[in-house]
Write a structure and sequence with these properties.
Layout lengths: L4 E8 L5 H17 L3 E4 L6 H10 L1 E4 L11 E3 L7 H8 L4 E3 L3 H15 L3 E5 L5 H7 L7 E4 L2 H6 L8 E5 L5 H14 L13 H14 L4 E5 L5 H12 L5 E4 L15 E6 L5 H14 L1 E8 L11 H4 L2
Parallel strand pairs: 1-11, 1-12, 2-3, 2-4, 4-5, 6-7, 6-8, 9-10, 9-11
Length: 315
C-alpha cells in the first residue's frame, strides 16, 4: 500500500534555547560534583521529558526549600525565584546553585534599578507563572503591578504623580505584548521601559520562524508542555498567521492521526524547553504513516552560550 505524501517543514530555530541548555547542564554538573541526590526547586524547565530524564540521573524535584534535607545541594529553576528563596537558603547555610536564565536575571536587575529611582513597575505577564512570581518577588508588593491584557491597562487607576516603568515576562507573544505596551504608553505618556524590550531573543526567534512556516503549512504541531508559556505562544502565532490547525503536543503518542486529514504540508516547531529528541520522535511517527519529505526553514542562527555559575566550575 502506497503511503500518502507529507511534506514537513521544520522551523529553525526550534527547541532548546541557551538559558534552558544552561539550566539542564547546571543540574547535570551538580550531580557530577556532589553526587546524587541533587534537589531542584520546581521544574528546572517546563518539560516533563526533561524532568523525568534528570530524575533518572538522581535529581529530586521539590516545591519548596523546606523539603530539602540539611547539607543537600539544591538548584533554583531557570524561571527565576523571588528574593526570599536565596535568603532562606543562606539563612540555613544551604548549598545552592541558581539556574535562572541570565535574560530573566537581566529583567530582575532592571526592575530593581527602576525601584531605586522611585519608579513603580507595571509588569506585563501571566499571573501565576513562575517567572512572573520570581520577578515580582524582587520588589516590595506595592512596587509592582501586573497586567495581562490591554483591558487590564485600561482599568488601571494610577495618580499622575506616580512615576512608572514597564517590563515584561521574557516568553510572551511579541505581537500581543506590543499592543499592551502601546496601550500603556497611550494611557501613561511618561512611562519608561527597556530600550530593546524584555522578550528574550530565543522567544522572538522561535516566533519568527513559526510565523514563516505557518504561512506555508496546512497544519502546525508545536512540541512543548502545556505549562510552557513560550510553547503556547508559538501555537498562537501559528493561528494568527492563518494556520488554524495549530496544535500543542508533548509527545508523538498524543497525535490524533485524523488531525492529518487534508494536510499535505505540516509545520513543526518546539518550545524553548523541548529537546530535539522529541522533535525526531514526531517526525519518525509521521514516517510510519506517510511518505515524508522534510525541509528545514531557517530564519536565523543562534550561537549564544551562557556561562555556568562560578561555584559549579571552580574546584
Amino acid at each position: 500500500m502506497n503511503k500518502r505524501k507529507l511534506k514537513i517543514l521544520l522551523a529553525g530555530p526550534r527547541g532548546f534555547c541557551a538559558g534552558v541548555d544552561r539550566a539542564i547542564t547546571i543540574v547535570e554538573k551538580a550531580l557530577e560534583k556532589y553526587g546524587a541526590p541533587v534537589f531542584v526547586r520546581h521544574e528546572i524547565v517546563h518539560n516533563k521529558f526533561v524532568v523525568q530524564t534528570l530524575e533518572k540521573k538522581g535529581a529530586i524535584f521539590v516545591k519548596e526549600l523546606d523539603e530539602v534535607p540539611p547539607n543537600a545541594p539544591v538548584v533554583f529553576s531557570a524561571h527565576g525565584v523571588p528574593k526570599s528563596v536565596p535568603s532562606y537558603a543562606k539563612a540555613y547555610n544551604m548549598t545552592f546553585l541558581d539556574a535562572t536564565c541570565p535574560l530573566v536575571s537581566r529583567v530582575h536587575r532592571s526592575v530593581e534599578r527602576n525601584f531605586k529611582k522611585g519608579l513603580v513597575t507595571i509588569l506585563i505577564g501571566h499571573q501565576g507563572h513562575p517567572e512572573v512570581i520570581g520577578t515580582m518577588g524582587q520588589l516590595p508588593e506595592e512596587a509592582m503591578i501586573l497586567v495581562e491584557t490591554v483591558d487590564d491597562v485600561n482599568k488601571l487607576q494610577i495618580p499622575d504623580t506616580v512615576k512608572l516603568s514597564w517590563s515584561t515576562q521574557t516568553t510572551l507573544s511579541v505581537q500581543e505584548t506590543s499592543e499592551i505596551i502601546s496601550a500603556l504608553k497611550e494611557k501613561f505618556p511618561n512611562i519608561i521601559g527597556p530600550s530593546d524590550g524584555d522578550i528574550c531573543f530565543a522567544t522572538t526567534n522561535r516566533q519568527a520562524s513559526v510565523k514563516k512556516i505557518a504561512k506555508m503549512s496546512d497544519a502546525l504541531l508545536v512540541i512543548g508542555a502545556p505549562n510552557s508559556s513560550n510553547s503556547r505562544r508559538l501555537v498562537d502565532v501559528g493561528k494568527i498567521e492563518g494556520c488554524d490547525k495549530s496544535l500543542l503536543i508533548q509527545r508523538a503518542s498524543e497525535i490524533d492521526w485524523e488531525f492529518f486529514n487534508d494536510v499535505n504540508t505540516l509545520g513543526i516547531s518546539a518550545g524553548a524547553s523541548a529537546p530535539e529528541v522529541l522533535i525526531d520522535e514526531v517526525v519518525d511517527a509521521c514516517k510510519e504513516h506517510f511518505d515524508v519529505e522534510t525541509k528545514e526553514i531557517i530564519t536565523t542562527k543562534e550561537n549564544v552560550e551562557f556561562p555556568l555559575p562560578r561555584n559549579l566550575t571552580r574546584e
